Amino acid sequence: MWEEAVPKPAPSGQKRPKREENLVLYARILLAAAALLAALALRSTGGTVYDSVRRGFIRAIQPDQFLFLTQERIFSKFTEQAAEALQRWTSALPVSRPAHGKPAKTAPAAVREESYLPNFALQFPLPKGSCTRTSGYGWRTDPMGGQGTEFHYGADLAAATGTPVYAAAPGVVRTAGSHPSYGNSLRLLHAAGDETLYAHMQYLFVRAGETVQSGQLLGTVGQTGNATGPHLHFEILHKGLRYDPTEALQAAA
Length: 253
Description:
The chain is an alpha+beta fold. 30% of the residues lie in helices and 28% in strands. It contains five helices and 13 strands.
């Protein structure tokens, strides 16, 4: 009885169950449909890639071997070539980019793209009505004729050479001197770790370590350093980080 309880192996000539045959058929239909879609997509990309895959399939199954290949072998070769076609078509697709076709940019280190308002009142650094804003804070085309774009750390206020430049708030002159890019420039340290920077000046009337008052004359507008015309480059820093000075300048005006 124990021997009769053990399932007996099916005879070698017995057919597979109909359910299994249906599953195999459905799988082949789905794979064939996917292969057809891949071939159509490949053909839409251009004749060169399509022809190379077609020639590879023909080489894989030679006419004199066709009759000796089983159905599974033929189907395997076809799906193999279809998979290659799909891979080539996918690699030929254009790389997605952000809106307007421009890649997203990240601000440089120690730079913040938002505005910042100090806790104390600011005085506008130039005489009223003497200047025009020519370049703002953030990404811009390199004005010096370089390739691509650059991040502009401050606001440019165009004014005539010799126009007085005033301290925006009381503080201590942290640095004052000549800089390869900023030209004649100085940096004031204010309360709470805030700083203001003045660049491209013609003359400097203060020295490092000197205490200045709000509205005190610091120097005059010039065109020193990397500048395309006479203007004051003005920056605001908070705890060593640069911020957009636009809102602060509007409040001071």
